[in-house]
Amino acid sequence: MARRLLWASLVLAPLAILLRLVADVGDVTLFIASAAALVPLAWLIGEATEHAAEHTGPGVGGFLNATFGNAPELIIALFAVGDGLPDVVRGSLTGSIVSNLLLVLGVAVVLGSERLLDARSLLEQLGLVLVACLLLLVPSVPGWSGDPDRHGLAVLTVPIALLLIALYVVATPLSLRRHRRQHQAAETRDITGWSLRTAIIALAAATAVTAVVSELLVSSLEEFAHAAHMSQFFIAAVIVAIVGNAAEHGGAVVVARRGKMRLASEIAVSSATQVALLVVAAVAIISWLIRPSLALAFRPVELATMVAATVVVAVVVRDAKGTRREGLIMLGAYALIVLAYWLSGER
């Protein structure tokens, strides 16, 4: 029954788009409709990822979910760049990394019926996130005094962005090949779900619609923010980050509930790693084409919370298992970070 309701509720996405195009509704209504539409889309991406992982294994499945699921995050960031909102861009990217590591993985560990993890894979990816945070200090520290969006810092950002992309391009194929070998060695049963082609098509279609709906939601956030008396940074780091990563959030929780904790953990950590290395760098590079160019000058609170989230998760996964208590600790850490974002206010 629940699955039928979820399939039926996919109609909410075209309904939200129609409300924007043909109906004269307020931003608050559009925000609610868009948020509701993202729920079944996240479920569909999680469903398609689970079927794809039957063919590829959890490591590659998590990578696929991160790749398709981070498309809305990239699109949202580029829209914000074009609107001249660099603090919103940096805040949403920071919040995306933190929420994937602590919120998504924490909920998955709490709700999952099986909690065994691939410690080697997760720790390797968390190491890459830490390296990214260290590299981001180069354009960030000069931004702590003076104008953080000055042209000189945007120029300084370019080689850092290229280095981040190079790290991701080198590290990802090595990791995927290892996951593929593990899956082939462990593969012992016939696959009865969707074909890999069907799963990929479903992922692509759901991600495309998610991107459109996410843009609708972000475009209606200003009115919502005004009514809720929230800072732009808080909205970007918490609300926009969660919305932009709805696919990974929903997908990880869905597969965790079905006892596939390795896949759920790969979805959460792969997504955070991809944002830290690839999405952050891609937004900085592409911003030179759409203007204004973006400087990766993060605030101390942003870098500190990214590092803290990475360290907390590394401590949890180092023994290749997660307990419900550790899941609650991750959720508690996320709540404290959200409080820090609220108190930090605007730049």
Compressed to H and E, one letter per element, the order equals HHHHHHHHHHHHHHH
Determine the CATH topology: A middle domain of Talin 1
Strand content: under 5%
Q: Architecture, CATH level 2?
A: Up-down Bundle
Helix content, binned percent: over 70%
Strand pairing plus helix content: what structural class?
Answer: mainly alpha
Shape: globular
What is the CATH homologous superfamily assignment? Answer: NCX, central ion-binding region
CATH class: Mainly Alpha
How many strands, what sense, and barrel or not for the largest sheet? none
Question: Helical element count?
Answer: 15
- Gyration radius (Cα, Å) is 19 Å
Protein architecture, described:
This protein has helices at residues 2-8, 12-21, 27-56, 58-69, 71-82, 86-111, 119-143, 151-186, 196-219, 221-228, 232-244, 246-257, 261-290, 300-317, 324-344. With 347 residues, it is an all-alpha fold. It has a single domain (60-185, 227-344), classed as Up-down Bundle (A middle domain of Talin 1). The longest helix is centred in the middle third of the chain and has 36 residues, at 151-186.
Brief characterization of the structure:
The chain contains 15 helices and no strands. It is an all-alpha fold and 347 residues long.
SSE map:
Blueprint: H1 2-8, H2 12-21, H3 27-56, H4 58-69, H5 71-82, H6 86-111, H7 119-143, H8 151-186, H9 196-219, H10 221-228, H11 232-244, H12 246-257, H13 261-290, H14 300-317, H15 324-344
Helix pairs in contact: 2-3, 2-9, 3-4, 3-9, 3-12, 4-8, 4-12, 4-13, 5-6, 5-9, 5-11, 5-13, 6-11, 6-12, 6-13, 6-14, 6-15, 7-8, 7-13, 7-14, 8-13, 11-15, 12-13, 14-15
